[in-house]
Amino acid sequence: MIDPLFWLGLSLLLVATSLTAVLVAAIPALQELARAARSAEKLFDTLSRELPPTLNAIRMTGLEITDLTDDVGEGVKSASQIVSQVDQSLDSARIQAQNLQVGTRTIFVGVKAAWKNFTRQKPVARIGDRFPSNENPPLTLREREGLGQENRRLKAEAYHPNDDYNDAASWETNFDDED
Q: CA angle, 52 as apex, 46 and 53 as ends, to 5°?
């Protein structure tokens, strides 16, 4: 067998050559890694300078949006109250217009009736129609009193058809007391 020391030296030489080859191949990768580390450091510096004001601006924007939302909500409430007030005003105006229409109709009907009454022709009274004919002899005083009592009874029945006043004696007594 060949000397073990030789193999040990040869192994060490091969390991050293392999390590050298790995290091030669790793140098560009390590340089890129160093460059990436510098870029990451710059990024982190930029983020540490820019991120707090940006986060603060985002927080302020959120607060402003909340305030605007509250203002819009209050505006909507106010608008709905105004709409309900306008609706109530329209309802009351409609009711008043209906009342006015009824009142106007009443006035027009009254004016129309008054105008018809005012412009109607009054019948011409003839002397023969105005006075009763003298065919019946004039009534005596007793006959007139009898007719008066009969008229009183008829009036009592007309005013009080179901009352005790239909009794002629009690009505005449009450009627005579009023005269």
A: 95
DSSP track, 37-103 = HHHHHHHHHHHHHHHHHHHHHHHHHHHHHHHHHHHHHHHHHHHHHHHHHHHHHHHHHHHHHHHHHHH
Segment 17-36, tens digit of pLDDT: 999 999 999 999 999 999 99
What's the Cα-to-Cα distance from 91 to each of 82, 96, 101, 163, rounded to whole Å? 14, 9, 15, 50
Six-digit token string for 97: 């217009």
Task: Please give the Cα distance from 141 to 96 (Å, whole number).
Answer: 63
**pTM, full prediction:** 0.36
Please state, in angstroms and rounded to a whole number, the distance separating the CA atoms of residues 114 and 106: 12
- pLDDT category of residue 92 using cuts at 50, 70 and 90: very high
Reading the block at residue 65, the tokens are 């949006």
With cut-offs at 50, 70 and 90, classify the pLDDT of residue 104: confident
